[in-house]
Each structure stands twice: as structure tokens, then as C-alpha cells.
## 1
Amino acid sequence: MPAFLSHSSPGWPALCLAITLTAVSSSAFAADIIVITDSSHPVKPMGGERIIELDQPARIEAELSADLPADPNHASAFARQRLSTGRSDLQRRIVQAYQGVADAWSLGIAKIPAVVVDRRYVVYGEPDVARAITRIHAHQTVDRSTRP
């Protein structure tokens, strides 16, 4: 092993820090970050993360049922018209919204906002995604340094 990569080399910690800082950039983890929240708990995204809003299905349903006539027959016809007019976009939005709720449930999310990295690490209550990721990486660094 070259001297600059040896564990006893004085440059080793600096090299590890540089590699770690490169790894924690938002682009390195963009595909592995999921943020679970709702419209009452806004978050500050970094960009590239998947954001799941748990109340999105209810908001889409409210959008569909907004200003419907009181008569059930007319309301039904109006709703069918709305569904057929924006069919592909609306169907995509509904599927994504319910898939997000199912994904959050499968991750066992207990509180929002939640920032999940690699479907393995989670930080609850931090609305700033970058700060949450920094906390996760700090924990990972400490965890790695305590391993034999």
C-alpha cells in the first residue's frame, strides 16, 4: 500500500475527510434520499430527493370533488368528466400519491418530517434535508470509526 494511503500516514485522516465530503454531496445520494412529510410540515429540499406528501391523495380527491353539484347524478357525471379530461396526468398523480403513502408505511415512518437515506437511516423532525443528511453522515462516520 502506498505511504499516502497507509493508516499510519499523517495524511490518511485528511484523505478520508476529502473522500467523505465528496460522498456526502447531494448528487452522490440524490437517488437514495426520500423525504416524507405533509403539507402542514414544509421541508427545505436539496434537489434530487424524492418527496412524499402523505396528504397528497386527500388533496387530489378534494380537487376532484371541488364545486360538484349537490345532485348525486350530476355530481357523478361531473366527476367522470373531470377524470376523463385529465385522465393520464390525473391517473399518474393518484398512483404516485398512493404509492408514496405505501412506501412511507413500508419504511415504518413514525413521525414527520422524516429524511430517509438508503432506506436504512432516518432523521425525524428536521425540515432541512441537507442538515438531516449531514447528521446521518456524521453518525455513519462515528459508526465506522468504532468498528474493528
## 2
Amino acid sequence: MKVIILNGPMGVGKTTVGNLIADRINGTAYIDGDWCMDLHPFVGNSETRAMAVDNILHMLGNYRDCSSCNMAVVSWLIDDDKVLEQLIQGIRDLDMETSVFTLVCSEEQLRKQWKEDKICPWRTEEWLSVSLRSLDDFRAKDNVIDTTCMETKEVTNLILKSL
């Protein structure tokens, strides 16, 4: 089974692209990493990240064992390389293939997408500032796709063609 990991800053389009991939390929499961550590109020520390990785891997194991599922997409902001390595190793231990893509965009594009998202409760000025500060760190990662001048369908097609 193939697992696509979509990484990148908040608001870059990971969820939208992940859902588009799942909609395009029959039998694809979609996992949002944020669901796997959905604590109120939010707590993002080493314990909750480890819990989220464990939850994601548990779900992937269940999807792997489901005859209706042949692929999975995980979208999650993974700014710690060790967490990404743990997730990738866990997926390998489940005998699944992994492709990781990091989505980034320009500051202007991120601001635009942020303002247009009326659904997500995280779309505050404070979190926008955090997301903007993280752009350069994500740009330095492997397998980066700059989505600035691309429609989400184009990003989805690019990812699917590279598999």
C-alpha cells in the first residue's frame, strides 16, 4: 500500500490537496494529522506529537488490512524532522511505501489563502504570523512543491504524476 505524506505550513493547502487526491483515486483513505492530536486547548509538545504519530500509524495499519483501501494520504504540519522520520519508519515497519511532499507558497499567497478560509478556527492573525515565520524552514526540506502560481488541481496532478 502507498502512503502519501503532505507536509507544510498551516494554510498552504495540505488538507485541500489531500482530499482532492483521495477523491481522485478510488480506495484512498485520508488522514488529517491534526485529528490525531485534537486536544482542547491545543497542546503541541513531544508527548502529543508522539501520540499523534502512534494514532496515525494505528489508522494506517487498519487501512492496510482493509480490502477496500489501496492507498492513504496523510496531511500534517511536521516541522520536526525527527517526528517525520518516526512516521516514515513506522510506515515502513507496516510494510507500506511512502512518498513525502512539502507544500510551500509565497507569503502573499499564504496570506490570501488564509483570509479566504472562513471554516478553520486556526485562521487567526497570531497563527498566520507563526505560519509565515515557518515558510523558510519548510522551503529547506526535501521534495518541495511551490504552489504559489498553481491551482490545487495542478498540485494534485503533479503529485499523482510523480508516484
